[in-house]
Amino acid sequence: MTSKERAYLIKLSHDLTANCQIGKAGLAAENIAQVDGMLRNTELIKLNVMRSLACDIRELAQDIAAAVQAEVVIALGRKIVLYRHSAELAKKGKSISFK
């Protein structure tokens, strides 16, 4: 992913609501399944990491991205933004197009 593509995705992510939360139990199989399902429906998602989880957010973001074959757009504060291109959504014309 180029820096311009990353900047464009960050811009798009500002309006997103975090639909998944990673709690004090850490990264569980349920979280991975939920993130994978969300990425099937939309290419760009935002996650919220609860304050009760004491870990490095960037490492957690890399672990999640590796588990669902996605890319980390940004991990800032307690928010993580992930992107995964979907050929299925591209066929429907609902894919994110980079300008």
TrEMBL record:
Q: Which residue ranges does the record assign to the CRM domain?
A: 1-95
Q: Does the keyword Transcription regulation apply?
A: no
Note whether Transport occurs among the keywords.
Answer: no
Q: Which UniProt keywords apply?
A: RNA-binding
Q: Which domain of life is it from?
A: Bacteria
Give the matching InterPro entries. Answer: RNA-binding_CRM (IPR001890), RNA-binding_domain (IPR051925), YhbY-like_sf (IPR035920)
Protein name in UniProt: YhbY family RNA-binding protein
Q: Which organism is it from?
A: Amygdalobacter indicium
